[in-house]
Amino acid sequence: MATTFKAIESIPAPTVSLDEQFLLADLAGRQDPPLVPRDVPLDPDNIDYVELTQCENLAQVLRYRVANNSLSRAMPAFTTVDSKGKETTSLTWEKLLARAEKVAKVIREKSDLKLGDRVALIYRKSEAIEFTIALFGCFLSGRVAVPINAADELAELAFVLNLSATRLVLTTEHNLKAFTKDMQARQVDFPKNIEWWKTNDFGSWYPSQKSSGYPDLKVPELAYIEYVKAANGELKGVAITHKTLMAQCRVYKAATTETCAAVNEQGEMVIERMAGPQPVDVVVSYLEPRQQVGLVLSILCSVFSGNHTIFASASIMETPAIWVYVLSKYSATIALADYPGLKLATKLYQAHPKEVQFVSKKVVPNLSELRLLMIDTIIVQPEVNEFIAEELLRPLGNTEDPLEVVCPVASLPEHGGMLLSFRDYLGPAVLEEWSEEPLDSENNQDQEQDQDYQPSSTRKMTSTLASGHSRDVWECVLDADALPTVAIVDPETTAICAADTIGEVWIDAPSVPGGFWGLPKHSSAIFHARPIIVQPDTLHPEIYDQEFLRTGLVGKLIGGRLVVFGTYEERIRQQRLGEGLGLTEVHFASSLVETITKNTRLDSCVFFDITLNSQNLPVLAFESAATREELPGLINSVVDLALGYHGLRLYAAVVVGPNNLPRSMKNGRRYLHAMMTKRAFLAGQMNLRYLKMDVDRTVFGVATSDDPNLDIWRSYVAYEKGVSMGIISARPQPQHTGMEIIRSVLDERTDFDLSKFTNIIDLFIWRTSLHPEETAFTVLTQSNGSLPTKSYTWRKMSTKIATVANFLQKKLGLKRNQKVLLFIPFGIDFIISIYACLSLGIIVVTCPPPDPDQHPQRIQDDVGSMFAALHDLSISYILTNTRAEDILKNKQVSPVVKQVLAQYRKANFKMPEQSSVSKAPKFNKLLGKESGFMVQPEWLSDKSPALISVQYSADMRRVYATLGHDTILAQCRTQKMTCQMKFQRSLVVASIYGTFGLGLLHSAFCGVYVGCPTVTISDEDFYTNPLAYFELIQRYKAKDVCVSHPLLQYAMNRISQSDLRRVVLHNVQNMMVTTDDRPKPVLYQHITRYLAITRLEKEAINTVYSHASNPMVTTRSYMLVEPISLFVDFAWLRQGIVRPLSPEEDTSGVLLHDSGIVPSNTMIAIVNPETQMLCPSNVIGEIWVASDCNIQTLYGLNEASHAARFEATISGADPRVKYMRTGDLGFLWNVQRQTGTQQTVVEEGQCLFVLGAISETIEVNRLLHFPIDIENTIERSHPGIPVGGCHVFQAGSEVVVVAAIKAKEQALAAIPMIVNTVLEGHSFLVDTVVIVNSNQLPRSRYGDKLRGKTLASFVEKKL
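Structure tokens predicted for Acetyl-CoA synthetase-like protein:
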């Protein structure tokens, strides 16, 4: 089946097997046996009928009508009338056959089609006669017709043509011109290898007098394939055989032939034809004649019965006088109609009876000849039947029994329009039922001697005739006798229902179609279903020995009559109050709609239910033009009406404007389409005027903890349950890595132990003394095609650093331990200033300045961050350069600086002085003893910080990470050893990530530590030409590169694939993508696909888990494998348990990628954050890190907070081992991989999986949820929500979703969609949904979500 036309909700597959006898044993002897079909009487006196029964297909019948009956050949067969009742076209039987034979002759002689090949028929409804000619032309030629009426789009038309392997299309000239024009307007080519023929030009063909007559008739088994759209949106083709057609037509002929029914002396029903000749029926129809029941009754059955059929437009019912005129003019005996048209006609006749009386002077309105008013419907409306009979038929001359004339017809529109039931002339049904008979007395006496004997009776099947006549008007939902064998079956278990239970209607008859075209499995499940019956004597379920068609209708057999309540899709289910979860009560949409329309002014409303969290929730959608002030009262009254009349508790009620609900065409009229409305509601694509949701009375069974008294950190219920179910090993291992301790690091060129250095300044001075003229730093001077660069040797860098140090000391008077804010954009001045401050013992604070060009929306936040750092850290001086001064003078930045400064002055804050390092006077001495600028030994003993980096925690609290000289060297050592850095290979660093964390380490310190050149690209150059960054990597053959997601995202958005093709990155062995959160598998796939053109191996793209307190906690560098993918069960994850899922398991889960393994001198433990005990395997906990790469502390922490954060100890473990608490949750997972041709299993180690920050987790019903999972679920659910356009957080106990919607008209509709999505995916209810513009969702300059800021705005009501 084409994925384009998927179903929303299909008939469920059986959920009970034959082995589950205990569930079915209760049905033994209570099941309602299938209704036995009634015999179609054969009247030997009716010569015409005898002849017809010998025909094998309708093509023979058509020839019979002309060749064997000279009286009928000249009689009219089909006539069309226009909207005014005037006859436009009429065709006799002889002319119909002649034109159809001509079509058949052309197909046989001028096409290369073989017997059974498909021919498409594309005709308008007004071209019903041309369509009939083409259809019978296909029959006569032995080809299979494919009428195409359900294709609303060109894609659907192409789908039908391709699936049916059609190579010939029959149409008319008008259709072909219109189709060609439409294709040209859409700039779409015609489907290839398909011929288009215009049948209206073919003419007629008669057998010559010399010939022996008509050509031999050879037909395949298949007659035609009818493609129809089901109510749930599927487009399927139903294969109709010639045998099926003949059976259908015979049943129709017998069922509409007037008979007398009587019971003879033997108790048998005798059916006799009414005495006297029975004239040919005249049928008037405005139903769609090209498909479904309109095709069956108005064309196929008319040919079989010899009826004269008049085709009218559906618009004729808008002028009932014309419809009555046509019925009266042609003395119609049968009319085909539908309820909407008849109700409209009756109401108009009531209001304007004179229009009907005087529509024509020649024709008097008279419906006395009308014996059957056949109404195409599934559900009968008794009140409407009586209204039509008494207010329309009786006043117009049908006075004998007008109610009996009104004849609802149930058909199967999704199964070829097969007739299911109507009030016919075949007599009452034969009923079979179980009856109990006691055992005979002798057996009783013998068995009473057995002590274990219990008196019993036998159950036998008996047959009786149903009461009444088959033409009686029966006051029930559908007063109709079934034509085929009918069984009522439970669609969930496929067991035949008990006598007091409704179920799905299953039928069997010779007229049942063969199945769906090209869908053998689907056909087997629907057209050849076999129910389960439980024998009363054995209590053992068995497969019934008869195959049935599943109709998708819900009904019941009562007294031999079929009672249909609606389609399967029309069921409105809801949870029973006070009952166990899953026990539902069922309502039907038609009954609910009738209640609403009767008691309110609404006439356009639909009901449907949606399935969320394994529960059915009713929804109402209706149209209204009421004012906005009236809508709350209106919607409340409708909700109360549904509750008061039916006990239906609506989950949601939505209001749209007039004509805004989806509709579909049927019989030329637009009908509300419940399934299309359901689809739009679920997709959040309705333009709502008002919304009301009630979750308190409708939603039950949300996920709750098994231990309601304790949270997941204190409760062991979930863990013990996991052990008992085998999810967790009974002998779990503690989640703790080992540590590879490296104490000495040798310089490659000198074999000197770098660990002997105590600070980075001494190491810089040493490098300068060894290789003074070698390049230390390279800077891209401007971004253009030639990539001009400027290099700085070790000597030149040393001189420049000493120059700035001299300026700071002599000119500005700065002293050791004073704090200086480095307000300089990333570049060579930034790096020089850091080293100058370090050489003087000045504590340098790195805080990136605002970027008015790239991030104008963040100016307020960046300036605020700067002033907060000035205030919190008691900054003594601000260092700038020429570029920074230009930023401060920027017309966007300057007013913000003045505004924020005014706020701080109120708190007695004094703005520190500032000075530009660009103005430092020349100083021709080097760092070290020559200038006196170097780190003194006593500076290292007091553990004072060397550098403070301004960063943000996950909950967006500003943190000040303090690094000592020992920490900087330890982090550099880890980089050199883990990444196997070589002095020959340069480091290339971009501005977008060079001012903090691992980026700062690579840009300022790692090159000095390793002895390799460092290549930098400024922020201005990177944003102007991001391709230059990758070209520099290629030029300098960088092996290890540090990037971030924002950097790559910016590059992917700006660099085209054609430009990137020029770059070759095969030298890159380790592209480290840093993240302080959970790795994003989708983003990894995007990056690998994007960079594949550069010949960068996927295994070289490695995630690094970077934390504000340690830039490399874990890394995937040089693991040489793609990320470890783990699909984890959501239901267990929210309980704190890791249960991996196999790809075959169909359940909700989240895909996780690992963050790698620990580097040297680092150890990780997964610890319960409350008990501070090691977590066993398969249990999530807080990530604790023991490493000399951890920062000293966070500035401003008191002793207790510092000890709790940076000197934590594990309960029950060695108290001498101190850990840094990351505040992030995760788990360790043992990973193995296969290597070599022998597929040897190698232990990769314990990989860390990061889940998210504890501060951002959401706790609902004692269960834990991660915002990123909820946000991903919401963002994937609606195309109008941009990527990253959703923030989820918890304000107190309230779960809040703030989402951005692109289209304002869909804003209100997105609210229930978001609630639905979270309920289905995460099994809890959102408390508040806020819809905003996308620019209202705050982000950091690096693209990270600022949920904490959104929370603050929500609490302060500033959203």
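The longest strand covers residues 1220-1235.
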